[in-house]
Amino acid sequence: MAWVGCVMAVRRNMLDVGVHRGGDLGLMAGGSFTMVDACRRNKESSELRKKLCSTQAKLDAYRSRLKEALHEMQVMDRKYQEASTKLKSLLRTYGQQILDLTKQLVEKT
Fold first, then answer.
1. 27 near 15, Cβ under 8 Å?
2. Of the residues 29, 39, 40, 90, which has the maximum number of CB atoms within 10 A of its CB?
3. Any idea where the domains of the chain sit in the sequence?
């Protein structure tokens, strides 16, 4: 079963594979590519695929946390702007009341 996976990995890489002395698979041009190399490459590529999947999952988790943090920052900024405008208007009305009271004091004296 493992050999089938290795042969599939070799075929997936679109290499011309032939049988050499000793029953090992290698390149038809007489290269040094053997079945062991194919299995090793297949194993390495599957490990890299697993790492990529886990890295993608981590990336998605960080991305979702970042989106939540940005949304929270936008909401808090909106609330801050609303509160600051409300306080500014209150400060303006209190300032006007103080000016009116000082004018009344000046007129009475």
1. yes
2. 39
3. 2-102
